[in-house]
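How a chain folds remains the central question behind the approach discussed here. This step matters because it turns folding into a mapping between discrete strings. The sequence in question and its structure tokens are set out directly beneath this paragraph.
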Amino acid sequence: MDGVMTLDKTRQQKQIICFYPGTIGGGGIARVFFNLIQTMLNDGIEVHLFLNDKSGNLYSQIPEGTKIFFGNGSVKNSLWPLLRYLRKYKPQALITAHAHVNIAAIVITKLALVPTKLVATIHTATSRDDKAGKPLRKKLNTISSRLIYPLADEIIAVSDAVADDLAKYLKMKRSRIKTIYNPVVTQKLLRLSQEKAEHPYFEQGKPVLISVGRLSEQKDFPNLINAFAVVKKEIDAKLIILGEGEDRAA
């Protein structure tokens, strides 16, 4: 993590780190943030979570000890509450996710005139996400992203491929973007991996492939299903897909 903002261990009891994912639905970003939050809480750091609203089916899984703050229902309507929050608490860092949240938070952090470091995280290929929508909207998204992202103190991608894609999309030097993999392997995950899976497929003695993720276009589940159909011709295996999302009914 060379070059990435580090915490001053001598002052960490007084430090505040704030996470702003927008909302906490069933996606992986919320779980990644929760893992980071729990680790920071364990280290004695005060952690805040800023959310647009109380929606999301993971609300009950927010780590105990997290101080939660709310906006007014959407990113646009939460700009003023976020500005007030930053000026009141002045967290050492504001860590954000999702393109529209990143852009808004970068601007508001600069307008707040506080020493807070803005850390924008990127979890998907930006160029692919930008293919959807009307041409004018896509053009505006591209222009605003190229103007605003460079103002972030740190830009973190979850893989080299995501970082490469973002650098190309933003016309930015690749060295400006750091890669830090998602902290998904936790002690809880290792403990759960030892438990018996209660499903008929596991009683048949056949290979079982499990795919877990948000059911959306970015995850490309059709490609997985087509590939598994090829595997089935040679191996009598089973496929289980776990997730929620807009493509569940497809």
